[in-house]
Specification:
Layout: E1 2-8, H1 10-13, H2 16-22, E2 26-32, E3 46-50, E4 58-66, E5 68-73, E6 86-89, H3 96-104, E7 111-115, H4 118-128, E8 131-135, H5 136-139, E9 145-147, E10 157-164, H6 171-182, H7 184-187
Parallel strand pairs: 1-2, 1-3, 6-7, 6-8
Antiparallel strand pairs: 3-10, 4-10, 5-8, 5-9
Amino acid sequence: MQRLIATATGSATASLPGFRAAFPRIVLKVHVSNLVQNLTYRGADIALRHASSPAEGLVGRKLGTIRQAIFVHHSLAEHRLDTLPAIGPGDDLPYPALHAAMRSTGLLPNCTVRLNSILSMHHAVRHLGGAGILPVYLGGSDPNLFQCSEPIAALDTDLWLLTDAALRRTARVCAVLDYFGTCSALRAKLA
């Protein structure tokens, strides 16, 4: 049995059953977080991370583009956005482009709930009602949500599967990189 530490976004968790079936002897320890793990110092072996390109010392594969749009609960789809409460990122979510998009879309003045993770924002839009900017792979796959804007181009970001260059030829790392790098379930969620 081999252990592998990976950091991931919520988009990867739906692909885990297929990986487990293909590689039952590899035990994954998955950490889903907004925090960036240091791959060079073995904070994790592999990361699924949004970035414009791999950082120095890392190698990886671009999986696609994450797109984001404004979503509301289906029960609010007929309401004007400027009449709805908004759900957005808190100051402790280090995502300047999302904060700027909240301003440029007009959601910021009505923001009544601020959260520190995208997954929390998704749950709040779904359960509290109101409008929020969410990744299309997340909001679009939720039958309770309605996408009420086109994707916001300023928020487009690439999704990378990354590892430290020193680990790229390790059998367990290769297995994960190959599986998730070609995983149709994961790529289908991306643009």
